Request: fold
Amino acid sequence: MDVAEAAKKYLVYPLMEICRLHMTHMVDSYPERVFAHALRHGYFDLVDKTAPKTLNWNAKEAYETLGMRNFVVWVLYREGWLLVRSQLRTLVIPVVAHKGGFTDCDHWDEFYDEFIDMEMVALTSWKEQFEKMVRELRCSWCIQRAGLLRNKVDGVVQMHGKLASELAKSV
Ligand SMILES: [Zn+2]
Reply:
């Protein structure tokens, strides 16, 4: 039994709080361990903070660390983001005619390729990345088209990109 578990078992609240703070500071170095611990104890804010950083976790290791029930939560979480990533590639984005009626634009190709090649971990905070990329777009028609893409991506993420805490509560 680790200290945090002992603290919880014997209801030593101040100690639990210290452990929780300690865990918060370990998020960047040991996200998987913190995620496992947070799931076990129902620290849902910490679950959601660490979950994106576990997306490249080896499944066997995840299973051994999480145990059956929480492994299911993690698999469903990862599955959702895998689906988001694969569906991004199938989206049909209406074209926006540029001056002179052109529909092809190098600015768009560059923007779009960068977006759909985004790593799964980065995808979990796609809005920030997306806005940053739009700010770098140097074509007003492509910026309009990016708005259409944003709505579609939003739909896909709402459908499949669940929070790990939501899944934990429903499994
Ligand atoms: Zn353009």
